[in-house]
Give the backbone structure.
Amino acid sequence: MMKDAVINIEHLKKAFGTNRVLQDVNLQLQKGENLAIFGKSGCGKSVLIKCIVGLLEADEGKITVFDKDITEINENELNEVRKKVGFVFQGAALYDSLTVRENLEFPLRDLKGKSRDEIDTLVEEALQNVDLKSAIDKMPSDLSGGMRKRIGLARSLMLKPEIIFYDEPTTGLDPITSKEISHLILDVQKKYNASSIIITHDIECARISSNRLMVIINGEFVAEGTFNELSKSENKDVKAFFE
Amino acid sequence: MSWNITLKVEKRIVKTGEIFKGFLLEMSNLTRFCLRFFKEVFKPPYEFSEFAKQSYLVGNKSFLLIASTAIIMGVVLTIQSRPALAQFGAQSWLPAMVAISIVREIGPSITALIFAGKVGSGIGAELASMKITEQIDAMEVSGINPFKYIVVTRILASTLMLPLLVVFADTVSLYGSYFAVNLKDNVSIRLFFLQVFKEINFSDVFPAFIKTFFFGFAIGLVSCYMGYNAGKGTESVGKAANSAVVYGSFLVFIIDMIAVQIASLIT
């Protein structure tokens, strides 16, 4: 494991029945780095990040997050790791029955010693970061797709995470909103010095928001590099994304 | 010809075996889900505010429906029973007979079935929808135990709210019965309830009340299980809601049958 790596994955394998989704995945994420993983739908991108946060159990391999092998640790230790991690889901996964304010307060509920004023300040600050202060008392059903994604991002920032996972952050959004979200991801990296893994098949999002890209095909990484390097790749699978 | 028949029989046996295997697997998963509930329910931190919210929702959601059904139940039962009792000149037994029927059996069973339809389907659909929109995953990633927050609170709320709703339904039913009695006779409310309480004793009320806790627990458990373990896609929301009602209602009858046997052994 390199000195500043916050995530290190070695020979990760995951299958659902006979369907081998992740074949032999090796990955490192450095501190402060934004890594975009892109590949076709169903190639195992989301499965990979769900394995990293322990939502899915890996069949084989080692996943180290903040020097802790999450395939070996118990539930309490895993929850401690999860508190340093933010996850922005594809559909934002906002709690339908709660207002935006309550959604944002939700991750703070286990924190002791925070006064009402402190919580309010944190909520307002998180909403300010995603430019949606006016939505504070709205219900998730009153928000547009782009607004939901922003609130989802704001919620993931509540615990000031050191790593943020974005699962298809621009899917289903118009090009302008997609661009705004991509820039927002970049802003968050700068402001919080957080490391991020961005799962996407939106090449523009990968270009704007990431420092490094990895291409996954059939459960294996086939190429890695900066946007410019990969755009010149001779690999036909990689080339197909840039055409 | 005989070869074809053998093949068909073989296929049928294999299919029956698979259905039975699926049933056993489902039962084993439900049992594990139930054991997990008992493991989590006593473990801190306790979700008091979510439990209070769910209790309010569960009770409030079915309050009006149960009230209107209960009053109809009382009226219908009284009107239907009158001719049979009149044949033996025993109309004066009407309040007592209706009260015993309502308190011992009809009140708890009908209320539980309505509860399964209204609350059970709601819990099943809500949890399935949370599952497919990744809200349960989002909770887990935040380091919050979704089983404790979502499942434990809902099962406890239905276990504790159903008995209260049954008491309420029984009371409303008796008022309905009083109204129906007065359609043909002229009985004062005091005399009506005097006749009711003269015939009802502890062995009528206690077992009937206790079994409602089991009804509520079974409905909450099955509904949460169906929703929490829903498959992918919107289709699974409907399926979870439907299964919650069907299995919840079925369990109510099974528990009722066992409760009657136990009560008759004890009393």
